Amino acid sequence: MFSEPEVTRLFGPRRNPADISAEELARDAEQAERILAWSERAQAALDEVTGTGRAAGGQVTATVAADGKVLRVDIGERAMRLGSLQLAEEILAALRLAGLDAARRTEELVRESLPGFDPAGALAEFERLAAATWR
User: Fewest CB within 10 angstroms: 17, 42, 90, 92, which?
Assistant: First the structure.
C-alpha cells in the first residue's frame, strides 16, 4: 500500500474540492485541452515512426512500425545463397535491430515533445507501482 508521502509525491497534496476556485478550474480545463491537442499531434507523429535494421552484411534489411508491425523485408542476392536456417536467423536479427531502432526513435520523439520527461524512468516507476502491494 502507498504511504501518504508517496501519494502526495505522485498526485500532489490533498485538497478540499470546495477550496478550488473557478479560475483554477478554467486554467486546468485549458491545460487539459492543450494536452489533448498535443496527444493527438504526438499520436500522428508516433504513427509515422519506423525503424530499420540490417543483417548479413547489409544483405537483409527489415523495416518495422513503432508497434512492431513488419512493414518490409528486403533480401539481397548474396543472402539467398545462405542456408534456410541461417537466412531465417539473419531475417530475425534484422527485425530485432529494426525494433530497437523504432524504440529509440520513439523515445527521441517523446523526449523532444516533453522536455524533462524520462520515458525509461517513467517505465521503471510504472513497473515499480504495478508490482506494489495494493490494499
Answer: 17
